[in-house]
Design goal:
globular, 22% helix, alpha+beta
């Protein structure tokens, strides 16, 4: 979760405001989708749209844990980055032909000028909020669930939200997880953004590996939050996994996956899940979509030495 203390508190007091129908309509159908935060991929018969909710300058210096600052600085410098990393906030739309499924919902109003662009990207891809049937939340943190409401109202009028049951208990019901408690601000934001869907019976939770729809499944990957989950889509022999916040800073955590970040509720569990999923993805050449790697965040991990290298997927831009 990209916490507001990373930037001056006053920045996040800015209100992005809801995107009007007139603004969405202003984007002509022939406009460059890539320039408006959209990239399209094909997974079997499923269409996948990477959708940008914006980017956030993230000061990683006080956040990354598990290595001396000099080593972290060297890893960042190798990728031509400093300690302030421009961090993508990515969401994804899966059009199965039968359902339109959104994976994560961006920050909505809650990050001010940083984030809140998902509705524009969705419109540029040719969809509206009313088209979305289901929203798969990788976890309940502001930059993934904040966009579920805009201006205090449900933003996706026809959608059911899906999330790990452990996150519902942790953020909405005040449960403690192995001695960890959710921060008051996270609880307040979850009550504003996720609770409205639960109140009207449109929050569906799962425990353990779960088949949600044909070709769409969920699997718990706890650590970053208690209910953090990885989603997988499969069609015609092709597949892709959505990793949520399994990784935040690619320049550092790809070569050194043991390095954690302060946002992880359970540092040890988050480290273990990253090691497990990186190893499997490197072995199986799994195509993945990561919420905070450079937009569009779709690619593969290649084992190299004791770590990994991120290999972006080719972007197809033709009929």
């Amino acid at each position: 979760m990209l916490k507001t203390f990373l930037l001056a508190a006053s920045v996040f007091a800015l209100a992005a405001g809801p995107i009007s129908a007139q603004t969405r309509a202003a984007a002509p159908p022939h406009a460059s989708a890539a320039a408006r935060g959209v990239a399209k991929f094909q997974i079997g018969r499923f269409q996948l749209f990477a959708l940008s909710d914006g980017t956030l300058p993230l000061d990683v210096d006080p956040l990354l844990k598990g290595a001396p600052k000099a080593e972290i600085d060297a890893l960042l410098d190798r990728e031509f980055q400093g300690r302030t990393v421009e961090t993508s906030i990515n969401a994804y739309l899966v059009d199965t032909g039968d359902r339109q499924i959104l994976v994560d919902a961006g920050a909505g109003d809650l990050f001010g000028a940083f984030g809140g662009k998902l509705m524009q990207s969705l419109a540029a891809a040719g969809y509206s909020a009313g088209d979305v049937d289901d929203i798969l939340v990788t976890h309940i943190h502001t930059d993934h669930s904040g966009g579920l409401t805009r201006g205090g109202r449900i933003a996706y009028p026809n959608a059911t939200v899906h999330a790990g049951a452990a996150d519902e208990a942790f953020f909405l019901d005040g449960a403690r997880d192995h001695g960890h408690a959710a921060e008051a601000r996270h609880i307040e934001e979850a009550m504003k953004t996720v609770e409205p869907y639960r109140r009207v019976g449109r929050l569906a939770t799962f425990r353990g590996a779960t088949q949600l729809f044909p070709g769409v499944s969920a699997r718990p990957a706890p650590g970053h939050t208690p209910g953090h989950a990885v989603y997988r889509i499969e069609s015609e022999g092709q597949s892709l996994e959505f990793w949520g916040d399994l990784i935040h800073v690619g320049a550092v955590q790809m070569p050194r996956p043991e390095i954690t970040i302060a946002f992880d509720v359970d540092q040890d569990a988050a480290r273990a899940e990253r090691a497990r999923l990186f190893s499997a993805a490197g072995r199986d050449r799994t195509l993945v979509a990561a919420a905070h790697l450079n937009f569009p965040g779709v690619g593969r991990v290649r084992p190299e030495g004791q770590g990994y290298v991120w290999v972006p997927a080719p972007h197809r831009y033709h009929d």
